[in-house]
Amino acid sequence: MLEHLDDVLQSVLPDGEYAKLTRFDEAVAATTDRGDFHRCLHCARWAVDLADSLGDDHARHVADALRTWVEEVRDTAYAVEFGVMTPGRTVTDLELAWVDRAISTAEQVAAKVGWAAVPWEQLVEELVAMEPGGS
Q: What is the pTM for the complete model shown?
């Protein structure tokens, strides 16, 4: 999941921001796929918060599907239980779509306020820190 995020960010970040992304290479490489459901969910929540913080209707529109899903998961214990560090479980295309939508939201926000105002580095740090057992 983190490799997917890295690839997507690499494709959208301007050169100056991309240079910042490379500092996460070692930490990302040291992670496993355990907890990827929670990482994907964290990306969805991050996108919703980002769109809301800007107050821009277009960014909110991009995040609307994620917003609905995040609210449903919050109310559905099974969905959260399903993703709890299940050995052998792999991240699904649907979950990677949440990551893609988060980055699309970030792009919309960056188009309005610039990438420097988008806390994408904090997101990557938080996702790396979600590694079970610490990394």
A: 0.77
